[in-house]
Amino acid sequence: MEMDKLINRINELSRKNKTEGLNESELEERDLLRRQYISIFKQNFRQELDRIEIVDEPGEPTIKH
């Protein structure tokens, strides 16, 4: 599921939970979607961190991971 659709569905379930509550299957779906969101977020964040290159002053060693 793409991130926008995932977020939209999480928000739909959140709004429904606040107004009328969720049934058992919706609670399970919400938990699954939240875990998927966190997993995707972590993966994207890790990719961003991996692209960072630290550059020191001239003559200093450059740290690359």
Report on the architecture of this protein.
The chain is mainly alpha-helical. The protein is built from two helices and no strands. The protein has helices spanning 3-19, 24-50. α1 (3-19) runs antiparallel to α2 (24-50). The model has no long low-confidence stretch (mean pLDDT 90).
Task: Itemize the secondary structure elements and their pairings.
Blueprint: H1 3-19, H2 24-50
% residues in beta strands: under 5%
Number of helices: 2
Please give the radius of gyration in angstroms.
19 Å
Mean pLDDT: 90
Q: Helix-strand pattern, N to C?
A: HH
Strand segment count = 0
Q: Biggest sheet: strands, sense, closure?
A: none
Instruction: Tell me the structural class.
Output: mainly alpha
Regions with little confidence, pLDDT below 50 for 5+ residues:
none
What share of the residues lie within helices?
A: 55-70%
Q: What is the terminal separation in angstroms?
A: 31 Å
Shape: rod-shaped
Give a short summary of the structure.
With 65 residues, the protein is mostly helical. It has helices at 3-19, 24-50. The mean pLDDT is 90.
